[in-house]
Amino acid sequence: MKTLVTYMTQTGNTQKIAEAIFDGITDEKDIKDINDISSFEGYDLVFVGFPVLQFNIPENVSKFVSENVAGKNIAFFMTHGVPEGFEAIKSWTGSTKDIAASGNLLGTFDCQGKVAQPIIERLEKSDDPEMQAFAKMAAAAPNKPDETSFQKAKEFAKEIQAKVQ
Ligand SMILES: Cc1cc2nc3c(=O)[nH]c(=O)nc-3n(C[C@H](O)[C@H](O)[C@H](O)COP(=O)(O)O)c2cc1C
Q1: What's the 90 CA to ligand 1 centre distance in angstroms?
Q2: Which of 52, 75, 101, 163 could form a disulfide with 80 if both were Cys (CB 3.0 to 4.6 A apart)?
Q3: Is the CB of 82 under 6 A from ligand 1?
């Protein structure tokens, strides 16, 4: 069995989770930036990771997955600036089910990731109280993902791998 861990990242948070997932896989495995792959061919299981951007899954990730997922075992992992368990995450990322519809979706993992300082400052300056609240939540988590996040990601990788074997 061969597993691919692929990810999109802008500031490194999702890459760190990708590395923890990769660490948790015990079979043959590759880890690659999503920009460096052209398909999921040759893999029995793929983990696809992304940061939540603008209350959504990044367009390039949705497109790549929906075009390549047919018949594949897939699991998602994502990082976001809001705390884990924040209710809206489900609606921001619920379409993972749709984009993976022609594959076999085995699970999703999410965790908080620190937000780049210029973004926090932009949110703080907003007139919108909701944006100011996001700024506060993000500013309160300057060290995420952390060791606990990596441990949970590793466990997630093992759980998903066990579903395929
Ligand atoms: C332009 C932009 C938009 C973002 N939008 C959201 C969002 O809608 N919800 C959220 O929880 N976090 C949002 N974030 C925070 C990122 O999802 C978070 O910092 C993530 O861990 C970044 O991952 P990366 O380091 O792999 O790029 C946004 C960040 C940026 C830069």
Answers
A1: 15
A2: 52
A3: yes
Please enumerate in sequence order all residues whose Cβ is within 8 A of that of 78, keeping only pairs 6 or more positions apart, or say none. Answer: 14, 49, 50, 51, 52, 57, 93, 108, 109, 110
Specify the residue for token string 């597993």.
3
Residue 52 C-alpha to ligand 1 middle, in angstroms?
A: 5
Are 40 and 46 a contacting pair, CB within 8 Å?
yes
Q: What is the pLDDT of residue 165?
A: 79
Count of positions (residues) in the chain: 165
Q: Which residues of the chain have pLDDT under 50?
A: none
Q: Is the CB of 116 under 6 A from ligand 1?
A: yes
Q: Which of 133, 106, 129 is nearest to 120 (CA)?
A: 133
At position 5, the amino acid (one-letter code) is V
* Mean pLDDT, the chain, integer: 97
CA 15 to chain centre: 9
Q: Which domains occur in the chain, in start order?
A: 2-114+145-164 (3.40.50.360)
Kindly state the greatest CA–CA separation across the chain. 52
pLDDT reported for residue 84: 97
Distance of alpha carbon 117 from alpha carbon 30, whole angstroms: 32
